[in-house]
Amino acid sequence: MVTQQYKDNIDTILQKVQEADAIVVGGAAGMSAAAGYNWYRDDANFQKYFNAFAKEYGIDSIFGGFYYRFRTEEERWAYLATLINFVAEVPIGQPYKDLDQILRGKDYFILTTNQDTQFLQVFPEEKVSAIQGNWTYLQCGSPCHDGIYPYAEQAKELCAHIEGTRIPSSMVPKCPECGGHMELWVRSFVFLEGTKYRNEHIKYREFLQKNQNKKVLFLELGVGLMTPMFIKEPFMNMTYSWPDAYYITINPDPEHGLLPWELKDKGLAVHEDIAQVLRDVVENS
């Protein structure tokens, strides 16, 4: 049953989107979960793509496999190739398509801690800053140089050569500069914060500087408390200090979709399914 409060929330979102001179979207793991891609659970996608690894090693989630201590590089890269191929192959989630509809005709920018490329498959690269890296790129594990490499096509080829849960030793990726081991270009102890990483921050800061004196809507989608320093806390602080800013967080979990009392007159917390909320915003626009 749709409550009056829910209808009022949809109306408020529509109003704030329409009124905004600029919209800053913050998207995290909850957005991909709403699209059906959950990195922390043993679900249908995990069973479809990673079942062999689940059976062999007792891995129970995509992230669980990423951090698993495989015995050999051949086993580890069989898993990582499967992960990269999964990210590159799965369809674009409906919430991302609905967000695209909502943002059309608006001046917007998207900041995301997601590494699954869903935002980048829908929106122009110049409008998205993926500040935690990208599952489909590799870097040197040292890292010995400032370079990242697209690896989706090569990962697909690796998957075709997996036997059980291993790839041939000759296919384990090596750094083209030092010959050392490679890593996925995602947040880790060796994450390369080089030119590409700095450029992601530069284009985001430039958008903020251009719009800080305008009517700005900060729209937070599925951002939790694991890394609040990247999206949640800056969004709250800018809303508090910018005179014409407004903050909306959409998160089904009330413990993560927080609205500080300091923003009670400048913000809205919607504790509903993100996919349903975005769909209803599109249908009522």
UniProtKB/TrEMBL annotation:
<keyword id="KW-0520">NAD</keyword>
<dbReference type="InterPro" id="IPR026590">
    <property type="entry name" value="Ssirtuin_cat_dom"/>
</dbReference>
<keyword id="KW-0808">Transferase</keyword>
<feature type="domain" description="Deacetylase sirtuin-type">
    <location>
        <begin position="3"/>
        <end position="285"/>
    </location>
</feature>
<dbReference type="InterPro" id="IPR029035">
    <property type="entry name" value="DHS-like_NAD/FAD-binding_dom"/>
</dbReference>
<protein>
    <recommendedName>
        <fullName>Deacetylase sirtuin-type domain-containing protein</fullName>
    </recommendedName>
</protein>
<dbReference type="InterPro" id="IPR026591">
    <property type="entry name" value="Sirtuin_cat_small_dom_sf"/>
</dbReference>
